[in-house]
Amino acid sequence: MFADLVLFNGKIVTVDAKESIAEAVAVKFGKIVAVGTNGEIRELVCRETEVVDLRGRTVIPGLIDSHCHMISTGMRSMDTIDLSEEAGVKSIGDIKAKIAEKARSTPKGELILGGKEDDYKLLERRHPTRWELDEATSDHPVVISTVGGHFSVANSKAFEMACVTKDTPDPVGGMFERDPKTGELTGGLHERARELVQVGLGVGEPTRESAAENVKRILMANASAGLTCVYDSVHGSEVRAVLDLKNRGELPIRVRMDVSIDLFPELNKVGISQGLGDGWVKICGLKAYFDGAISARTAYVSEPYLNRPDFYGVMATTKELARKSILEAYEAGYRISAHANGDVAIGMYLDIMEEAQTRHPRPDPRNRIIHCTVVNPELVGRIKSLNMLPTIFGAYPYYHGDKLIPAFGERRLEWMFAARSFLDAGVKVAAHSDHSASPFPPLMGIHALVNRTTKAGKPIGQSQKVSLMEALKLYTINAAAHSFDEDSLGSIEVGKCADMVVLGKDLLSVPSEAIIDTPIDMTIVSGKIAFERER
Ligand SMILES: [Zn+2]
Fold first, then answer.
1. How far does the centroid of ligand 1 lie from the alpha carbon of residue 535, in Å?
2. Does domain 208-525 match CATH 3.20.20.140?
3. How far is the CA of 290 from the centre of ligand 1 (A)?
4. Which of 1, 151, 222, 405 is the most exposed place for a label (fewest CB within 10 A)?
């Protein structure tokens, strides 16, 4: 047998059970067929074999982001104003200027959307109000969403066109921010209140063709950051965009899909369930929501936020509603992937899963807790005994860390993003970007998990530090287990898919402060080069 592709003369970090290091690897038909010494692999080279001389460079398994919103972010990226610090927004004045500029080229009455706003990175250290957005335009409805995606701000025209007034009650699982004296809406929309306004405005979908093109663009950007697989949270048009690309043979990387639990009746009618798909695209669990976000500091917690007295965060559902929908879906054989950030929300989810698993036991359930941010020893123990799979924010201690210290305080941060505690308890924890809630490069996540320092360089929950090899597992083999893919993805071993990343520096020996700057030279998916850095 001869190989299609051979990488030799390198340091192959296999992430197999023995954490072994090899010199070379051979690929045939998209699968790894040999891992070993240069001499062993050389025997598989023929004239048709593509040969890559690594010249000592390091190769790691393809990296996996185990929860994000890549598809919806990519799909709408063309139509949404980028209000992030990276796009040059430093103040509420900058937000107003960007909206006013867009308004000049947008017909009156047409919706203007903004995204990735981050109050902590604004001069004023707060979100703009409805009235401030009105100063940018009163002729267009404007809705801007914040970096975590759980909180938005609308202007007066948006409320008017969505028929939402101060007399509109808060929806179940949502909240309008109001003036405490007059009850007047001040623009802020939490959780389901966002949907109420967006549905009222008829927020549209891009065309099928532009959706697929935009999704392709973001997945190619993912590949350039070393990602070979992302777990996304999807609705109808997003699934369609991914399948359109797959059917054309243009899908850059693998996609695992958690589908909204709201779609359970439809999925169940057709019999679509976890496991449907193939190595490229596969259905995982049903996505439910329990509470608010960490970056917005609205996770539902047992101790009040230090910077907001008497505020414990917000719920996105009630226990009764969540229990009913989860038990119904669980009985029908579905796997659950629920968003729970705060300790109270996580406890609620575990109560429901205890009941679900007692009533309908399964040998290998693999239900997921998405974020699972604020924990304690009791919750970690319950997660272990229920065999739940948490996936935690990777980059947050670094990227959002500086805003979390005043909200939670140092003591509580020792029990947040608790990678160390989960690993010590034998829990198969993975990690994610939740993009667009944080940047998607997985090396930023690995950097944060290993260093536990903020962007400004402050220590943040240092007792939860993990080793580089452990952090790598959170983005490879552990993440693969979250979709029953541990026999085909997540390590460089014979028989597995040839998903690998060639690095410009040796990740195992760079100083830990420099992990984030490690260049990605090449990303290989299923034996094909999906990205190669120009040098
Ligand atoms: Zn999310």
1. 35
2. yes
3. 12
4. 1
